[in-house]
Amino acid sequence: MEQKTILSNVSWRFIKGFLQFFSMILIVRNMNIADYGWYVSAISAFEVVVIFCLPGTIRIALRSALSNDGRFSNLLGLRLILLPFLVLGFILVPSFLALLFLISTLADQISMFARVKLNEKKLYLVFNIFENLKPLLLVIFVGIYIVIFDKPISLEYIALVYCFVSVFIMLLNIIYAKNFASLSMKASWPEKQEFLESFYASGNGLIGIFIRRGAVLVAALSFSSTDAAYVNIALQFLTIFTMIYSGISLSMTRDIYDRSMSFKQIKFTYKYPLTILCLGVISSSFILYYFSDLILIILFGNEAIGASEIIYLTPIILLFQLPQLVIMGILMRYKKERMILFLNLLSILIFLPILTFVPYELLSLIIILLCFVIFTSIAYSLTFFMSKDLKNA
């Protein structure tokens, strides 16, 4: 049964990753590369400032919903109070068009709260379908444009589509969750404890945001929009494997939280899926190293050839990040959110100045990202092996 659950989660994450990848292929092949770079930079800017909205609130809301402790409305209130911090994204992308990406990010954050209720009621099929809708609708709208118009996709069109799709999915999530998962959008004023729990829980996703979105922003601000496009294209090869890992992680996180399962059982269940994932990462890196130009031209067209020197390195990022991800799950089992936040912030604060000022080309930027994940995994490993209560668990 457990293997079936893992396979189901991996399948859904693979579908989402494939749709995202396919939508990117359609957009890159039919859009000016510099415009595409600005588009992904705008998305990255607002997703980075989501950090100030305490993304850990979603995790605490799910925990609250599952335990039925009556704090969901307080946590919803906390999320709504903090969402105005998203306007900080305009500092990174000072453009009127960026307003559409602000609205999109607001809609995405509210959608996540609605999906908490779907998760609580174990409506996993609907949950997964809604999660896959955004890239699917992007594929549909981009496909319609390509069929109707014989010219490159404009930046205004893709921004409007991205915004519309986000708002549409938000409304769909809210309406369905209200009717079938007892969602109430009535918010209450949060208490200090809820703020602190959300603050500590917000450390979990910092590393992923730093890698996926921070690198794109650095490329845009330090080099050009075109270079930001190259970095994003390269990181999509990482995203494919990250999506597969997240499918494994969904099941593994549930088992890690389940105190009735020993670490020996967890190791036995997940060592084979993780080994297969690692072999897939290594194999793909070799293939991308030897056939980078051919793969980029076939998939994205000639304009994407600038990413050829870095695409083979991006899947390896996950390989070196795996120790950190697995140990972070163990720390979560023992409610060590403060330690996770400390380790992640420490790693980011050390490498942010390096990532911002040291790179003089795209290759050096990706190498710094690799050093970053290696450093983070070493920091987590040392913390694990130096802690007697974790080591002997």
Report what the structure shows.
There is one protein chain. With 393 residues, this protein is mainly alpha-helical. Helix 2 crosses helix 6, helix 3 crosses helix 9 and helix 12 runs antiparallel to helix 13.
Unreliable residue runs: none
The total domain count is 2
**Radius of gyration in whole Å, from Cα?**
21 Å
**Biggest β-sheet: count, sense, barrel?**
none
Shape: globular
Derived from helix and strand composition plus strand pairing, the structural class reads mainly alpha
The number of helices is 16
**What is the N-to-C order of secondary-structure elements (H for helix, E for strand)?**
HHHHHHHHHHHHHHHH
**Share of helix, binned:** over 70%
Give the termini distance in whole angstroms.
Answer: 25 Å
Give the gist of this structure:
This protein has about 400 residues and is mainly α.
Blueprint (SSEs and pairs):
Elements: H1 2-29, H2 33-49, H3 56-67, H4 72-82, H5 89-92, H6 98-120, H7 124-148, H8 155-180, H9 192-201, H10 206-222, H11 225-257, H12 263-300, H13 314-333, H14 337-357, H15 362-386, H16 388-391
Helix pairs in contact: 1-7, 1-11, 2-6, 2-10, 2-11, 3-4, 3-6, 3-9, 6-8, 7-8, 10-11, 10-14, 10-15, 11-12, 11-13, 12-13, 13-15, 14-15
